[in-house]
Write a structure and sequence with these properties.
295 residues; 6-stranded antiparallel sheet; elongated; binds 2-acetamido-2-deoxy-beta-D-glucopyranose
Length: 295
């Protein structure tokens, strides 16, 4: 009797622990394919393959914070690419991938095409590893304006991003580059760019270029911060330091005052492509907007 009671409490405790541990933070953005034909059924071969793969994922990341694999046979073949931001500590990287593999099943239940982005890592199912995937393209941006938008975008940021694109493409397996520059009015511009490790140097460059060329018409033009997210590459620019930077990589402190609070704008219209776009807000949520466009 006593033993049973103890066991019950133990199980209950475990259940609670498990329950707490499955509360993953929201993605900064995610997308799931919208067509029923890309859905799979519970307990199908695809479901089993996916779960096998996801459960092993964070343990199998390589030293560069990258993982890609495929298991199963068509049509139940599952392919996944998971990658951490190039400057993440390995423990944060594993935690992030762990979170992403659980969160993706929650936000894209039974969807075969799914992309999830955290600040620290990205997850995508990518059936053709080694090819450039530009769709969906998601912009997430801070709605506050910089003080001299044209100078910011066309001079300082441009020079910075162009040099980062080259450095990242030529970066070997770790296609990641980060730097800062002095923007207008003594603002420090922080930027990072990254491609998935499976891309060639040329494909990486093309992917980043593709996103970069959309900046002039992007609603993120002249804003304090923006994430430009595609399955094969992404880049960020902002006038404040990045989260979770490795010690020693922090940019010098800046004296600019924090951005004023901003009212969130109404949600943008959904694009007509075959993806639904969703925006999950950051902790500093009210300063962010989402905009997404099918290529
Ligand atoms: C997808 O399936 C749901 C219910 O199973 C149905 O209501 C919806 O119309 C379907 N959508 C498409 C695009 O076929
Ligand atoms: C992962 O999720 C836990 C909560 O389950 C959270 O405390 C932690 O910050 C998350 N880590 C990352 C890197 O997302
Ligand atoms: C995701 O995986 C499914 C099934 O393998 C595939 O149909 C879909 O095209 C993949 N998405 C991308 C972007 O590769
Ligand atoms: C940013 O600038 C644009 C164009 O000058 C203006 O319409 C918009 O209201 C500004 N946004 C904020 C949050 O000040
Ligand atoms: C970062 O940018 C500065 C110019 O702003 C440049 O001198 C420096 O070489 C860059 N760092 C790297 C690692 O490319
Ligand atoms: C299954 C698969 O495609 N694995 C590839 C993952 O990426 C590495 C390069 O980083 C390839 O060598 C693997 O073949």
């Amino acid at each position: 009797m006593g033993f049973l009671k103890w066991l019950t409490i133990l199980i209950f405790q475990f259940y609670n622990l498990f329950d707490l541990s499955i509360a993953q933070p929201n993605f900064i953005s995610y997308a799931c394919a919208d067509f029923n034909k890309t859905e799979f059924s519970p307990n199908s071969a695809y479901d089993t393959n996916l779960n096998t793969l996801l459960s092993a994922l964070s343990r199998n990341m390589d030293g560069d914070g990258f993982y890609n694999t495929s298991i199963g046979q068509d049509p139940d073949k599952v392919s996944v690419i998971a990658q951490c931001r190039g400057d993440m500590e390995s423990q944060i990287c594993r935690d992030c991938i762990n979170n992403a593999t659980r969160k993706i099943l929650e936000v894209c239940p039974y969807k075969k095409s799914a992309f999830g982005y955290y600040d620290e890592c990205t997850y995508s199912n990518e059936s053709i590893i080694g090819t450039v995937s530009l769709n969906p393209l998601v912009f997430i941006y801070n709605t506050a304006n910089v003080s001299s938008p044209d100078e910011f975008m066309q001079e300082d940021l441009r020079t910075l991003l162009e040099s980062l694109q080259i450095r990242a493409s030529e970066g070997g397996k770790r296609k990641f580059a980060r730097n800062t520059t002095r923007g207008p009015d003594f603002q420090t511009i922080h930027a990072l760019v990254q491609c998935t490790a499976d891309l060639s140097a040329q494909d990486c460059f093309n992917c980043l270029r593709n996103g970069y060329e959309r900046l002039p018409t992007c609603p993120c033009y002249g804003k304090l911060a923006a994430n430009v997210l595609m399955p094969s590459c992404n880049f960020i620019f902002q006038t404040y330091p990045f989260s979770n930077e490795l010690p020693g990589t922090q940019a010098p402190p800046q004296s600019a005052p924090p951005p004023p609070p901003i009212r969130p704008s109404p949600p943008p219209p959904l694009p007509s492509g075959n993806f639904n776009f969703f925006m999950e807000l950051l902790a500093s949520s009210s300063t962010y907007n989402s905009f997404s466009s099918p290529l």
